[in-house]
Design goal:
The structure holds 2 protein chains of 2 kinds. Chain A is an alpha/beta fold. Helices cover 27% and strands 22% of the residues of chain A. By secondary structure, chain B is α/β, with parallel strands linked by helices. Chain B has a 5-stranded mixed beta sheet with strand order 4-3-2-7-8, with helices on one face. Classes of the chains: A alpha/beta, B alpha/beta.
């Protein structure tokens, strides 16, 4: 009498797919959590300048964004073709920045407030005048940590 | 009468539904990582404060980098090519020949390094309101790159590691070794920022 029974049937059973939904759900939840649904709708063209030394923005939740650029084509008729500052979803002027920073700071946890960072997303062809004004406003608002957002490249080619 | 049995719910299509959702989120996810040059602005000057010590910085320690409204770069008053800026900055900080017009060195005690001669260089970046932003960023980038290169080399020669691989203590020591502030606003009136 043999201890090992010779298998009688040759057919391979179907693969158990019961855990497939679990795996898929896991992936689903991962992507659901990392997805940012509401991105700011840009009303200006922002073509970031090139730089090689850019560091990665580690905590996006601590960052506030200031966009500066020329209005997109459809809005040139309404807003002209001068450089505009966009905070959240609307065009603002330099004096509004202080309020904006105060608001953003308010929305952070108390422990996170000193780590607050302002990311400046500025079009590469803008002249520095408006940037200087914005920087001055940020200093007044005591938001000193800033980041010049850039486009990572290996070699800078200036036009 | 036949006994009614509870039928199991067919869960075969659950995976399909989950897949659909998964694909939706896969497509809508933007995984872009923001890159940027990290800078610290100088605080607003206190009108009651005494004259800040920055105004007492010896002239030879300041590397004046200017970009005018025509995007022309000048270093210490001389027109310079953008490609040379990194090398000029490095040379100014290191000052290997102890040139009297370039940065002084002072004895400083730094943890992990001990007593070392450290450059007192300060970089002052000035620009015009008409300067193009991309040129301004490019110049900022070169100045930062020059400083980062020096830090990297120091880290390599001391521990054989890249600067960004160092632990907190070592990073701090290297930062102190090459404490070269790059100031960008009113450098004569307000202290430099790092």
């Amino acid at each position: 009498m043999s201890k090992f029974k010779k298998s009688t049937s040759k057919n391979v059973g179907s693969i158990n797919t019961a855990s497939l939904p679990d795996i898929v759900f896991m992936l689903l939840f991962f992507f659901m959590t990392v997805t940012v649904l509401r991105e700011v709708e840009l009303k200006i063209n922002v073509n970031l300048p090139d730089a090689t030394e850019g560091k990665k923005l580690e905590k996006k939740s601590l960052a506030s964004f200031i966009y500066i650029g020329l209005p997109v084509e459809q809005l040139v008729a309404t807003f002209g073709s001068e450089p505009k500052i966009q905070l959240n979803d609307s065009f603002k002027e330099v004096p509004d920045i202080q309020d904006f920073i105060a608001q953003e700071r308010e929305s952070l946890d108390e422990t996170d407030r000193p780590k607050m960072l302002v990311s400046l997303k500025i079009d590469r062809d803008i002249s520095m005048g408006v940037v200087i004004d914005v920087k001055q406003a940020l200093r007044q608002a005591n938001a000193l940590k800033i980041m010049y957002a850039n486009n990572p490249v290996d070699i800078i080619a200036l036009r | 009468m036949a006994k009614r049995e509870l039928q199991p719910i067919n869960a075969g299509s659950m995976a399909d539904i989950a897949f659909l959702l998964l694909i939706f989120f896969l497509v809508t996810t933007t995984m872009d990582s923001d890159m940027g040059l990290l800078r610290l602005l100088p605080p607003m000057p206190d009108p009651n404060a005494p004259v800040p010590e920055a105004s007492q910085i010896n002239d030879r320690n300041i590397l004046e980098v200017k970009v005018n409204q025509f995007n022309v770069l000048s270093v210490e008053g001389d027109i310079a090519r953008f490609e040379d800026l990194r090398e000029l900055t490095r040379y100014f900080i290191l000052n290997p020949a102890n040139d009297l017009t370039m940065s002084e060195k002072e004895l400083k005690t730094i943890p992990l390094f001990g007593d070392v001669m450290v450059s007192k260089a300060v970089i002052s970046l000035q620009n015009d309101r008409g300067t193009t932003y991309s040129h301004y960023i490019a110049v900022q980038n070169e100045l930062l790159a020059a400083r980062d290169e020096l830090k990297n080399e120091l880290a390599q020669s001391t521990w054989g590691l890249r600067y960004d691989q160092l632990d907190e203590e070592k990073t701090k020591a290297v930062d102190q070794y090459y404490y070269v502030p790059i100031s960008e606003a009113e450098p004569k009136k307000i202290g430099g920022n790092k």
